User: Fold this.
Amino acid sequence: MPTSGTINSPTAFSAYTDYSLASLNLNSVMRRLAQGTKSVVDDGAGVAISERMRSQAGSSNMAMHNTENAVSLLQTADTWMQQISDHLARMHELAVDAADGTKTSTDKANIQTEFGALQAEVLRISSNAAKFNGQNLLDRTFDSTVAVIVQVGADSGQTIGIALANLTDTGSAAIGTNSVRWSALLTDAAVNYYSAGGLGSTAGAEGTSVTTQANIAIARLQSAIDYIAQTRASIGAQQGRFEKTRGALIAYENQIRGAENKVRSIDTAREAADLMKFQILNQIATAMMAQGNQLPASAVQLVGGR
Assistant:
């Protein structure tokens, strides 16, 4: 607060005004240096822009995690599909083995035992073993007709769908050009899930067995192997898309954070220079205020001396 001498001295009051401004500016500079960023008082429009950029950066980072989860899901699905492909390849070998006229019925029954075990294992994998985060991968959960949507951006509508094959025992996927249904491969009993005209059928329904249908089984299994290969190719394409999206999100997040930093952060070198400047001005104003307060006293001494 100014003293009575300051109030009565125009020179001292002017010095006090400069002192107050220097102190205010000094406090503002010290606050900005302590925080490292601008406040709404310093740059209201810039802060509003930076807040939106921060939101975009944070949401883009979360979308990047979504793409990583999608890639992990597709990798898990492909691992299980590799297991199925291996089993189908062995089943195809057994079918070729059984299609040998020199084999006795006992030999074919033994081959059918292993063949049936592989059918059961493929059914187990596709029905409930192939899972990711508790969700079945090869049933209707991720069927191509009901694609699961993944948010891959900070804004509405930036999504990518995941579509996998339906390989359960009631799966209706047609295998190859023979119109055989997938479910016909998973049992040697009669099923009704493949279309009329399918290999080894008229309008009826039958499963796949190497005991009496080795040649039919060979053709069906070759179609099944091709079908799984095509499905894995689709999984690979989807995985590649998510990985490219992830790379784009990383680049976008880095860019938006850099832009936000330029808008929100202070110029440290400039603020340091201003700090020194206002410290000096504050000290000078204090000294000038003291000198201004002494001017009336000097005038009184002159009058008294006369």
Observations:
- Strands lie at 131-132, 135-136, 148-151, 159-162, 174-175, 180-181.
- The first strand starts at residue 131 and ends at 132.
- The helical segments are 4-8, 10-35, 44-98, 105-129, 214-264, 268-305.
